[in-house]
Design a protein that fits this description.
heterodimer; A: about 650 residues; mainly alpha; two-stranded antiparallel ribbon; B: about 100 residues
C-alpha cells in the first residue's frame, strides 16, 4: 500500500498554525477561520482515507491474521549512539488509525462549532492557530514510531492545552488555571521522562513495539529485571497526569476556564485520553513484564472513577460536572486496560488464540472502544454545554432550568449523549461500557461490582445535570421582570456539529470493534454478556429514575433535604473532597517553605554572590583603565610613541 | 663636503619638530603637515646614510623616492578623510572626533 500522502496529515495543520499565527492579525476573522477549518477538513479526509485503506483495503496479513504495523517514514533526527537514535516518523497501527479518526472528527467538529461560539471574540485568529497546533501535536503523538517522539508531541499537546486554557488571558482565573494545568502535567511528565530514560538505557532503544525489536533487544529487556516494571509505571504516571488520574486530576476541572469548544476537544475527547493511548501502546510490554503494574493502574483508575463520580454529583457548574464525568470515564478506560491479564499458560499476550482476545484481553478492546465512543458523546456534551452557556451567559446551574423549549436541538443532542454515557441500549455507550464491565467481572467479581456501581452513579449525575438544565424551575421565567434575556437556540454552525456527533453516538455502537482492535490483533466477535448487560441497564435505569424523582420537578425537596441532612458530606463533595487544599498545603507549606526557601536563599546569597563578585572585579578593573580609550587620536599617538620608545630602550639595555 | 653629522642633526630636529607638532596641534591639516615633516626627516636620513656609507649603491635614494610616492598617496587619502570629517562635523579639530569610541 502507498501511504506516502500521510505526511500531509501532520504538515497541513503545522503550516496552518504558522500561517495563522504569523499572518493572522492581517486577516479578517472569517478568512482565518475558513483557512483553519479547510485545512482541518483536508486532514480529516486524509485520516479517514488512511484508516479506510489500512483497515479495509489493505486488510489483514494472510499468514498471521493480523493488521500489519506500517511505518510510512521514519528518519533519524538525533543520533545518540549506534543503537540509540531519536527518530521522527509516522506509524500506522490499529489503535493509531482509530485515534486518527477520533482526533480529526472531533477537531473538525470543534473548528466548525467555534465559528459560532467564538464569533466576534478578540484573538479569533490566534484561537484557530492554537487549535491547529493542538491537532498537529495530537496527531503526531498517536502516530509516533518511538516513545521519545511520543514524549515530544506529548509536551506539545501540553503547551497547546496551556495556551488554549489561558486564551482569555486578561481573566485572572484563566491564567491561574492554565498555569496549574501546565505545572501539574509537567510534574507528571517528569516521571514520564525518567521512565523513558530508564527504559531506553536498558532496552537500548526508544522503540516500544515488541514485534519490531531485534532478539538482542528482547533479551536485554528480559535481563532488565525490576527496572522495566518500574520504568513502565513511571511512564504511566506521566499518562496519569495528562489523563487526570487521582491525585493528579486537580488541573482538569480548572481547565474549564478555557473556551468551551476547547474543553470539548482537548479536555474531553483527545488530549486527556493520551494517557489511555500511552498505556494501550505499551500494552504488550505491560502484560509481559509488569502485569502487576497494570493491575495497580486498574486500582488507581477505579478509585479515580469513583471519586470523580462522587464529586460530579454535587457540582453546580455544568462544565465542572462534565469535567469530573470525563475524569470518571477515563478511569473506566484505564480500568479496562488494567484488568487485562496475561495468558495463564504462557504468561504473555497469547498471540494465536482468539479466546485470549475475548477473555483475558477483552479489556484492551473495551478500553479503546470506550475511548472512541466517549470522545464522540463527551465532545457532543461539551458542545451542547457551550450552546447553553452562550444562551444563558453563565456556567452555573442556577441560571438554567426549563431550557428544553428554547433550545430543542441542543436538548435532544444532550439527551442522546446522556443516555449514551449512562449506557442505555442501543446507544454506543451501552456497548463499550458493557464490554468494560464484562472484562472487570472476568478479572474479579468485586471489581465488576464496583465498576457497575460507578456506572450507576454516572447515570445519576448525568441525569441530574440534564434535569437541572432542561427541566425544573426556569431562571428566565422567574426573572423575566428583572431583565433576564430570553434563551435562544444556537446558530446552525453550532447545531450541525451537535447533530453529527449525536448521530455518530447513536450509530457507532454497532461497529464490530473486535474485528479491528483486540489485545493480540486477532479478529473476534464481541457478544453481549446478558447477565452483565441486563444488570447494568437495570441499574442505569434505576439511577435515571432516582434522578428524575429528585431533580425533574419545579423544586427539588429530596435533594435539598439530603444536602441538609449530610451537610459535611455535601460540602466536602462540592469542594472536591478538599484535594486542592491538600495539594496547596503540600506545595506551599511543605515544599515551598521547607525546600524552596532554603534553596532560594542559597541561590541568592552564595551562587549569585559569587557571580556578583566576579562581575564586580571585572567592572572595577575596567573602570580603572577605561581612561585609555578616550577617542582622542593624539592621546593614542602619545601612548604609542611612549610604548615604542620604552621598547627601544629595553632592547638597547638587553643587547 | 658637509660633514654627515650635520644631516643627522637636521633630520633629528625635523623629526622632533614633526612629533611635537603632531601631538600639540589640534587641526587635522596641521597634524598632516607634521607627519610630512617626520617623513621628510626620514628621507634625509636615508639619503645621508646612502651617500656616506655606501656611495657606490643607490638603495637609499630609491627608498627615498618610494617614500615620497607613498607619502603623496597617504596625503591624498588623509585629505579625503579630512574633507569627509569636515562635511560631517563641520570642523577639523581633532579633539572633537571621538565618536568612534562608542
Amino acid at each position: 500500500m502507498d501511504y506516502s500522502y500521510v505526511f500531509l496529515i501532520l504538515l497541513l495543520p503545522a503550516l496552518t498554525f504558522l500561517l495563522l499565527g504569523l499572518a493572522g492579525m492581517k486577516m479578517s476573522h472569517k478568512v482565518a477561520g475558513l483557512i483553519g477549518t479547510c485545512s482541518l477538513a483536508i486532514v480529516t479526509a486524509l485520516s479517514y482515507y488512511t484508516a479506510f485503506e489500512y483497515f479495509l483495503v489493505q486488510g489483514r496479513d494472510a499468514s498471521t491474521g493480523l493488521y500489519p504495523t506500517v511505518t510510512v517514514f521514519n528518519f533519524t533526527w538525533i543520533k545518540f549512539s549506534e543503537l540509540l537514535t531519536f527518530n521522527i516518523g509516522f506509524r500506522i497501527s490499529t489503535i493509531s488509525a482509530m485515534m486518527l479518526i477520533v482526533i480529526s472528527t472531533v477537531s473538525l467538529m470543534v473548528h466548525i462549532y467555534s465559528f459560532g461560539y467564538m464569533h466576534g471574540e478578540k484573538g479569533f485568529q490566534r484561537y484557530y492557530a492554537f487549535l491547529n497546533l493542538f491537532t498537529m501535536s495530537m496527531l503526531g503523538l498517536v502516530v509516533a514510531t518511538n516513545i521519545f517522539q511520543m514524549y515530544l508531541f506529548w509536551e506539545l499537546v501540553g503547551v497547546s492545552s496551556y495556551l488554549l486554557i489561558g486564551f482569555y488571558y486578561p481573566k485572572h482565573s484563566a491564567v491561574a488555571a492554565s498555569k496549574k494545568a501546565f505545572i501539574v502535567t509537567r510534574f507528571a511528565d517528569m516521571f514520564f521522562l525518567i521512565g523513558i530514560l530508564f527504559y531506553s538505557f536498558y532496552a537500548g532503544t526508544f522503540n516500544y513495539d515488541m514485534s519490531l525489536m531485534t532478539p538482542e533487544q528482547l533479551h536485554t529487556l528480559h535481563a532488565a529485571g525490576w527496572v522495566l516494571p518500574m520504568s513502565l509505571f513511571f511512564m504511566f504516571i506521566g499518562g496519569a497526569g495528562k489523563s487526570a488520574m487521582f491525585p493528579l486530576h486537580i488541573w482538569l476541572p480548572d481547565a474549564m476556564e478555557g473556551p468551551t469548544p476547547v474543553s470539548a476537544l482537548i479536555h474531553a475527547a483527545t488530549m486527556v485520553v493520551a494517557g489511555v493511548y500511552l498505556v494501550a501502546s505499551l500494552f504488550p510490554l505491560f502484560i509481559e513484564f509488569a502485569p502487576n503494574a497494570l493491575h495497580w493502574i486498574a486500582y488507581i483508575a477505579a478509585f479515580t472513577a469513583f471519586y470523580a463520580a462522587a464529586v460530579a454529583c454535587c457540582q453546580s457548574d455544568i462544565k465542572r460536572v462534565l469535567a469530573f464525568s470525563t475524569i470518571s470515564q477515563i478511569g473506566f478506560m484505564l480500568v479496562a486496560l488494567g484488568v487485562c491479564m496475561p495468558d495463564p499458560e504462557t504468561n504473555v499476550v497469547a498471540k494465536t488464540t482468539v479466546e485470549y482476545a475475548d477473555m483475558n484481553g477483552l479489556g484492551y478492546m473495551a478500553g479503546m472502544f470506550h475511548l472512541f465512543t466517549h470522545a464522540m458523546f463527551k465532545g457532543c456534551l461539551f458542545l451542547c454545554a457551550g450552546c447553553i452557556i452562550e444562551a444563558v451567559g453563565s456556567n452555573e446551574k442556577f441560571y438554567m432550568g426549563n431550557l428544553r423549549k428554547y433550545m430543542p436541538i441542543t436538548h435532544i443532542a444532550f439527551l442522546i449523549c446522556c443516555l449514551a454515557i449512562s449506557g442505555i441500549f442501543p446507544l454506543s455507550g451501552f456497548f463499550s461500557k458493557d464490554e468494560i464491565l464484562v472484562a472487570c467481572y472476568n478479572f474479579h467479581p468485586a471489581m465488576g461490582m464496583i465498576m457497575s456501581g460507578i456506572a450507576c452513579m454516572t447515570a445519576f449525575y448525568m441525569f441530574r445535570l440534564y434535569y437541572v438544565i432542561f427541566w425544573g424551575q426556569g431562571y428566565y421565567e422567574t426573572h423575566i421582570n428583572d431583565g433576564a434575556k430570553k434563551p435562544h437556540e444556537a446558530p446552525a454552525c453550532m447545531t450541525i456539529p451537535l447533530i453529527i456527533l449525536s448521530l455518530i453516538t447513536v450509530l457507532c455502537g454497532w461497529i464490530p470493534f473486535g474485528h479491528f482492535i483486540s489485545a493480540n490483533g486477532l479478529s473476534f466477535d464481541t457478544h453481549v454478556n446478558w447477565t452483565v448487560a441486563i444488570t447494568s441497564s437495570v441499574l442505569a435505569i434505576a439511577a435515571i429514575g432516582v434522578a428524575t424523582f429528585m431533580y425533574s420537578g419545579k423544586t427539588t425537596p429530596v435533594a435539598d433535604y439530603l444536602a441538609k441532612k449530610f451537610p459535611r458530606l455535601h460540602e466536602a463533595a462540592f469542594r472536591r473532597f478538599y484535594l486542592d487544599e491538600v495539594w496547596m498545603f503540600v506545595t506551599h507549606k511543605i515544599i515551598f517553605r521547607c525546600v524552596s526557601t532554603p534553596i532560594a536563599w542559597f541561590d541568592r546569597h552564595v551562587v549569585d554572590g559569587f557571580m556578583n563578585f566576579i562581575a564586580w572585579c571585572t567592572q572595577s578593573s575596567a573602570e580603572s583603565i577605561r581612561g585609555f580609550q578616550s577617542g582622542q587620536v593624539q592621546q593614542y599617538a602619545i601612548w604609542f610613541l611612549t610604548g615604542s620608545v620604552a621598547l627601544t630602550l629595553m632592547l638597547l639595555c638587553i643587547f | 663636503m658637509i660633514p654627515v653629522e650635520y644631516y643627522f642633526v637636521l633630520s633629528a630636529l625635523l623629526f622632533f619638530v614633526g612629533v611635537f607638532g603632531f601631538f600639540t596641534r589640534r587641526n587635522l591639516i596641521a597634524m598632516l603637515i607634521s607627519i610630512e615633516l617626520i617623513l621628510n626627516a626620514v628621507d634625509i636620513n636615508f639619503a645621508a646614510f646612502n651617500r656616506c656609507l655606501f656611495p657606490d649603491q643607490m638603495e637609499g635614494f630609491f627608498f627615498t623616492l618610494f617614500e615620497i610616492g607613498v607619502s603623496a598617496a597617504e596625503t591624498a587619502v588623509a585629505i579625503a578623510i579630512i574633507i569627509n570629517v569636515y562635511r560631517n562635523l563641520h570642523s577639523t579639530q581633532v579633539n572633537r572626533i571621538e565618536d568612534l569610541k562608542y
